[in-house]
Amino acid sequence: MIVAFSASIWYLAIKLPDKLWLRPLKITYGIQYLLNYAFIRNHYLTLTFKANLMGRFKASFKYLFILIALPIIIFAIYTWVTLTWVYSSGERAGYVQKFSSKGYICKTWEGEIVLVSMPGTQAEKFNFTVKTEVVAKHVIESLGKRVRISYEEHKGIPSSCFGESAYFVNNIQVLEK
User: Fold this and answer.
1) Degrees to nearest 5, angle at CA 109 with 108 and 115
2) What is the pLDDT of residue 23?
3) Which residues contact 163 (CB under 8 A, 6 or more apart)?
4) I need a labelling partner for 47 at 20 to 30 A (CA). Which of 16, 31, 36, 156 fits?
């Protein structure tokens, strides 16, 4: 398109003038016009290319956000919901048999209580997790004693980083014999 346009301008600049003394002026004007047009066209193409690049960058950033950040946000919201929403809560009584801090990266307090309903029956084990250090200190003090624990069950926790068990103890009380 530029070649056809420049050829038509050149043709008009040479053939159109009626008088010979206007010919150098018209040729100079035509060349100057072509140079200006080429500069403006080149500058416009450069600006268009830069705008196009910015548009592509914005579009790719939007897709990158959708592919990476959005699943992370959804996972964080899901984790928050599972840790705050309580599926069930209750109390159990028995003897604290085992209690330890576990994990390579995420240290959690994990324990086991033996539930004995009647003498002579087989004991049932109840695994639990403790979130706070205060409750963990009370559990350590009550090892081997008959205790009553209050717990909350959180279903669907996505990782064992928050605890190996779905049962989180929030209170412990030593029972008298």
Assistant:
1) 140
2) 46
3) 108, 110, 129, 131, 157
4) 31
Type of residue found at 60: S
Q: Assess contact for 33 and 9: CB atoms under 8 A.
A: yes
- Condensed to tens digits (0 to 9), the pLDDT of residues 60-85 reads 777 777 788 888 999 999 989 888 88
Question: What distance in Å separates the CA atoms of residue 51 and residue 62, rounded to the nearest whole number?
Answer: 16
Q: Is there a contact between 83 and 157 (Cβ–Cβ < 8 Å)?
A: yes
- Burial class for 165, CB neighbours closer than 10 Å (0-12, 13-18, 19+): buried
Rounded Cα distance, 25 and 57, in Å = 47
Within a 10 A sphere around the Cβ of 167, how many other Cβ atoms? 21
pTM of the model: 0.60
Tell me which residue of 143, 102, 105, 109 sits closest to 129, measured CA to CA: 109
CA distance 82 to 153: 10
